């Protein structure tokens, strides 16, 4: 098991934002983390990354907790934030070199891996430029390149399709499928449910800081008695109902 | 509504200035300023007693005043104003009048002090009426330049070109009226012509974006100036590619290409590509070198260099602060201690080079006492250690 979250409660201050979250991700699995704005997706992601300390509960990545071995824990993770976070003073090539050094990858191997990714995302000619001068989509591609060259066990991708052009989305999906086939896992938070439905193996639906359900689309349909409905409809039914009850 | 908006913003700006003023004008700096001002006045008055009138004195006085009669404009507008104040554009007159008054008051000390120095310089070779005309024209320039520069924001005119034009016009006019009072017609004509030209280029409606951007630049400039003396978290860092420096930038190779060296790799680039920092340091070195050469006193030279190194080291620590709080060091599988260790390695090397430059200048000015220069690298090392520790401590407290 790559990720195991056990009864996680946490948030930014003493007031919890997420309550008693439990889920897991198996090796070679793509899981969609789905929820409305403010549902607790980003808070959950920040807890997995170790950016926030849980109030209670436990998170294990490849069997270890952050407290066991922070460095090794983080090595298992590759993070692509919703809004690109770049070093304004570094070129694209230097971002690749920094990532390589951080993940202990030999420079030539890293540049070799990056070369493929640069071709895929059509950034090969921009190696000596500051990515901060790129468009939002291109910046997002830099984030993707840095994460995918590290080849971590678990990718955490916050809104992966945001800002990407159709070609970029297509390339990203291909990359994700390829990584899955190599036994790596992906947790992605997204609102693009049609795409998520096609490529995610399972879905974790979070609402009001609580995990409503986790399962395959068929399991969700069965659980909520919505045979033949697509993910959009199931999702709207689940979260819409919960809003009314709130 | 806009009329009531200015006062709280002005109070906010005044509070900001008084907050940072406490850090800038600390006891050490006040002592330094007092000594420096005393030495400056002493040498100036001494020089004026012996010096004979020459055209260079007029040029110096005109230059000082021309540099100091360029008041900045602070509208105190905020980004959201471009959206929320748009419907009130026609009722913004009161707001902008208040902004004019506040802006003029903010810069007034510079021409007053500069004027006093210029009057002292002009006391040699000029009678009282000539000095009075010089002072009146300077005051006229102060007001006119302010309005010209303010109006130019609402045009497509280049800020730099306008600044250079105004400066050249001022220095030429001030110099010429010192030669003959009838030249007074020139500044009046030129100023009037330039005002009319700028007005003719003005957009028909207020360019909110230009005014807001201008204000952001001014505020950022203020923070950058403050950051010369203390840490400022608000500075909006900007970077320049400077490709020509790429070859000089250290990069770990082979086995050294690892996480232990990654932050040092980063720090060199942060420094070399910082929009202002290298130039600020260069300017500080030049200023301190000029003062050292001018004063030419052994003890004061040592004090000046020690103070110069202190100010520069203070500048460098902002690089550490900027990096330590970013997202990636918290996400990457790299020990946080490496940031500190890399900063220590990088900053000690840089401070050593800067101390060495000061040591060379000192040795040139005081060749007999060259051995005194050995204290500079040592001072640089110690001050870097002390100041860095404060930065690490603050970071640790915040991360806890």
Summarize the structure.
The complex is a heterodimer of chains A (246) and B (400). By secondary structure, chain A is of the alpha/beta class.
How would the blueprint of this fold be written?
The complex is a heterodimer of chains A (246) and B (400).
Chain A: E1 3-10, E2 18-25, E3 30-34, H1 41-49, E4 56-61, H2 70-75, E5 77-80, H3 92-102, H4 107-120, H5 136-150, E6 154-158, H6 166-181, E7 185-189, H7 193-199, E8 202-207, E9 210-215, H8 217-224, H9 231-245
Chain B: H1 2-24, H2 27-50, H3 55-68, H4 81-84, H5 93-107, H6 109-122, H7 128-153, H8 159-179, H9 185-200, H10 208-226, H11 259-273, H12 277-295, H13 298-324, H14 328-331, H15 337-365, H16 375-399
Helix pairs in contact in B: 1-5, 3-6, 3-8, 6-7, 7-8, 7-9, 8-9, 11-15, 12-13, 12-15, 13-15, 13-16, 15-16
Would you mind describing this structure in some detail?
The complex is a heterodimer of chains A (246) and B (400). Chain A starts with a strand and ends with a helix. Chain A has helices spanning 41-49, 70-75, 92-102, 107-120, 136-150, 166-181, 193-199, 217-224, 231-245, and strands spanning 3-10, 18-25, 30-34, 56-61, 77-80, 154-158, 185-189, 202-207, 210-215. Chain A has a six-stranded mixed β-sheet with strand order 5-6-7-3-8-9, with helices on both faces. A three-stranded antiparallel β-sheet of chain A has the order 2-1-4. In chain A, helix 3 (92-102) packs parallel to helix 5 and helix 4 (107-120) crosses helix 5 (136-150). In chain A, 45% of the residues are buried. In chain A, strand 8 (202-207) and strand 9 form a beta hairpin. Chain A has nine helices and nine strands. Chain A has 246 residues and is α/β, with parallel strands linked by helices. In chain A, 41% of the residues lie in helices and 22% in strands. The radius of gyration of chain A is 18 Å and the shape is globular. Chain B has 400 residues and is mostly helical. Helix content of chain B is 74%, strand content 0%. The two termini of chain B are 43 Å apart. In chain B, helix 7 packs antiparallel against helix 8 (159-179) and helix 8 runs antiparallel to helix 9. Classes of the chains: A alpha/beta (246), B mainly alpha (400). The A-B interface holds A 49-51, 70-75, 77, 79, 81, 85, 87-90, 94, 97-104, 106-107, 128-130, 132 and B 237-239, 241, 243, 251-253, 257-259, 261-262, 265-266, 269-270, 273-274, 326-328, 330-335.
